[in-house]
Design a protein that fits this description.
327 residues, single chain, 30% strand, 8 helices, Thermophilic metalloprotease-like, alpha+beta
């Protein structure tokens, strides 16, 4: 493959991602970690890196079987030695030991699980300064709160504690050693206090590794003491159960609560973009280690809730998908 095989729009998106989001510098090294499903996008990053940094490298591996599955040891070691790492892959590497350990070694990392050419070309044109400001304020509201209550027209009704937990601002700007985030980005997220979530989650938007949830096939999840104890519905519910089943109870840990803040993102069936859609919230099951939790199971599956309402300590923050606070 040569640079002529890559569209001008994709090349420009890769340049913007490296220059403006990852703040890649002339004296730095870049490592692109990709797989056989995303190698065209990986090549675009590599060619863009040739223009912007001291030297780019690329590793192409076989696709992982699921989000959160650990990366090969060779890849993990290489990630520790790079200044900047971008990871356009079929499945998510965000919640892996490889990403965590590379950040601990000082690498700046952008993960792009499930990234598509359309998402690259469209979402990197967004105003990330505005997205960042919105995300930081939402993160502040979450961090300073103690209790969350989420509802939705489809039937979500979940309460949980976030007391003493710091939310994370995924702004799309990864500019300091050890920092990481999704690209494209725009979400404020955190783990619920372990063991506190109680109620019902109805996933009616999309699910990582599955795709868009059909209107007649929402997934209802009964939650007790921080775990999904019952998953019901139709074909999509069966697919979710099959993904989580190999990991036992730990795989059903309510690992994440996130709020989308990107007004350029849209629902496409790819969780990388879906969970950033402004006016949505999402929950995840499984691994919460990267958010400070104790569950290091090798799976992290997000589910999107449409038109949610939620309160923080009784204060209305969102109603039917619209923010009620100034962001």
């Amino acid at each position: 493959m040569c640079m002529d095989d890559i569209s001008a729009d994709l090349m420009e998106a890769a340049r913007i991602a490296l220059r403006d989001c990852m703040v890649l510098k002339k004296d730095e090294t870049l490592l692109v970690v990709t797989d056989l499903g995303k190698d065209l996008i990986g090549q675009a990053f590599w060619y863009a890196g040739r223009e912007l940094c001291k030297e780019p490298f690329m590793i192409t591996m076989n696709p992982r079987s699921r989000g959160g599955e650990n990366l090969p040891p060779l890849v993990e070691e290489a990630m520790k030695k790079a200044d900047v790492v971008v990871i356009p892959t079929t499945k998510s590497a965000t919640h892996t030991d490889a990403r965590i350990n590379a950040c601990a070694a000082g690498a700046r990392i952008g993960t792009l699980p499930g990234i598509t050419q359309d998402t690259m070309e469209r979402c990197f044109k967004a105003d990330y300064k505005k997205i960042a400001a919105r995300t930081v304020e939402m993160t502040r509201l979450l961090t300073t709160a103690s209790k969350v209550h989420v509802t939705s027209p489809a039937g979500t009704d979940l309460k949980f504690s976030i007391e003493g937990i710091n939310a994370i601002a995924s702004t799309g700007i990864v500019d300091t050693p050890g920092k990481f985030g999704n690209l494209p980005s725009g979400e404020a997220y955190m783990m619920p206090a372990e063991g506190t979530a109680e109620g019902i989650i109805v996933i009616d938007g999309s699910i990582a590794d599955i795709g868009v949830v059909e209107k007649n096939d929402p997934v209802q999840v009964k939650v007790e003491k921080g775990f999904a104890v019952e998953i019901t519905g139709g074909k999509t519910a069966e697919k979710l159960k099959a993904l989580l089943e190999p990991f036992g109870k730990d795989g059903r840990n309510i690992a994440e609560f996130g709020v989308g803040t990107n007004d350029s993102a849209k629902l496409i069936g790819d969780m990388l973009e879906d969970e950033k859609v402004m006016g949505t919230i999402h929950f995840a099951f499984g691994n919460n280690k990267s958010m400070g939790g104790t569950f290091n199971v090798q799976i992290h599956i997000d589910g999107l809730v449409l038109k949610p309402s939620f309160t923080l300590d009784g204060k209305d923050i969102m109603n039917n998908g619209s923010f009620l606070v100034d962001l």
